[in-house]
Amino acid sequence: QVQLVESGGGLVQAGDSLRLSCAASGRTFILTGMGWFRQAPGKERELVASRRRSDATYYSESVKGRFTISRDNAKNTVYLQMNSLKPEDTAVYYCAARNSGGEYEYWGQGTQVTVSS
Prior knowledge:
The protein has 117 residues and is an all-beta fold.
């Protein structure tokens, strides 16, 4: 089993920055990648950024150039640096981890990010 714990959410103003953290514990050696998802009220959950074990990254068009996903292997922690935040970035952000089959099997509890205009 793998456990994920997110932190770093909060209330900020448009244009501000936030960094989310996701600490993984347990059988982390089985993971093949990590991702950050978000879900806004009334909307479907969407993948905003991911990083595979090969360090290949993906960013959704809505966050490309503003968000950066990184990791600290020594701390088993993945980060999402969010710059130039916009009100439309307001959502609950979830960290997720890929299993050996490449599926997002493990999920954190979510952290709220609210961006005021």
